[in-house]
């Protein structure tokens, strides 16, 4: 191909314009390998991996507690643990899973690694603040774990007053741990918003921003605005226990229902801290594996912001039986129905993207299909619980437990697993066993449904949640649910096994194993130390699958060292390499 023809082609595609790195052979894992280099790193990729390792550890702690709870519920009376121990187990299961795993999983782990790569940036805006965020998360997590061994807590993960103000155990320690983790969440949100605003590559306008970045952007807004409310609320609980200030104590002029308002003002938006970045993962994978431009780009992007905004206005649907005003309950019920609209927009647009696409049934897409079904069930049952008349009957039953897990595990965890499999070759440079991945996906899907579908039936028949004993009519449902939990645990263990095995024995991953058009896949399999050897000048968006792949390969030709790009051109296609 002559120079003129090359320039004519290159002016249509995504190309790079920058001076090469001083040492282009370095990637982020071979710069320094000692433990100290990891503990002091400011590389967003290493910090993302440390987050990933940490949340995996806490996921297994929370999962083990869940299995112990389900095992205890095999019989209507005591099976193998005491009632007080049971109360501590389900409390710690909820607290560990939500604050130590679900909240930081996609934003802090996958987001830290992928966001700068998608923006064409060398790192996040504040690398040292990023490391501080991780250490705050780690410190808060260890404080929370210390609470387990220094008396435990039995309040439920919501720490409802007046019980949490008066019971024994390590409630103050646990709330302090969550308080510290909250600062980590806030600083991560500040970092991500600044990075998205200030660190985008030339040409990466808002209409070309990957939808995963839009999800992280909306999530960061929620983190910054909602998390301080939780921090103040838990600080007040600690002060009530230590100083007896009585802000939630009616005997001292306080109001325990006020605690619920404070707590759910954070904790319902927190659901979207967990799920909105998962929506971004779904958008990336759907487009990649259907080889189509995402349908309704702006509708999906703006619906993330709409969810973030409306999510702040629906906390009262957790309090229909708390004695709040009838008018307030009606308004909160309406807003609960309203927040389902932007979520529905996403579901329809994802379906339209898949329609007549060139679909490849790889494991990341199979996890997304599992997400579709499970999250749809979770969303529809959320509408049921948003109806005041139905919620009065279903409140504090296993119906709520099943709904919550269908949203959080069926939605967020399935999206997290999809994103983990999708970006695993980029994170490690290795390919995992695809057959085992598909089998594990099926086991997790089956195990999850066997675990939680019976709980909808139990809840609709009046089985209260968190009860140590129950009447015999519910025993078959509990036993099926317990069997499902062990199937689900087996699936997660399989995922852990083949992903870890791939690090040591997996095949070397190609630079772009999925044939994606997104920017993070246009560099080497393991990103260079500073991500890009040339500053990207973005011309096309990440979903432009209507253009032939050959054009992208021409524009992103790798240099002789296998890591960088030879071609430097302007937006108009002028060849600069001769100069």
Automatic annotation (TrEMBL):
It is a multi-pass membrane protein. Residues 563-579 have a biased composition (Basic and acidic residues). Residues 560-579 are annotated as: Disordered. InterPro entries: Cyt_c_oxase-like_su1_dom (IPR023616), Cyt_c_oxase-like_su1_sf (IPR036927), Cyt_C_Oxase_1 (IPR000883), Cyt_c_Oxase_su1_BS (IPR023615), Cyt_c_oxidase_su1_bac (IPR014241). It catalyses: 4 Fe(II)-[cytochrome c] + O2 + 8 H(+)(in) = 4 Fe(III)-[cytochrome c] + 2 H2O + 4 H(+)(out). It is found in: Cell membrane; Membrane. SUPFAM superfamilies: Cytochrome c oxidase subunit I-like. GO terms for cellular component: plasma membrane. Its EC number is 7.1.1.9. Residues 30-539 form the Cytochrome oxidase subunit I profile domain. Its main location: membrane. The chain crosses the membrane at residues 49-69, 89-110, 131-149, 169-193, 214-238, 258-282, 294-315, 327-345, 365-390, 402-424, 436-457, 477-500. Pfam families: COX1. Belongs to the heme-copper respiratory oxidase family. This is Cytochrome c oxidase subunit 1.
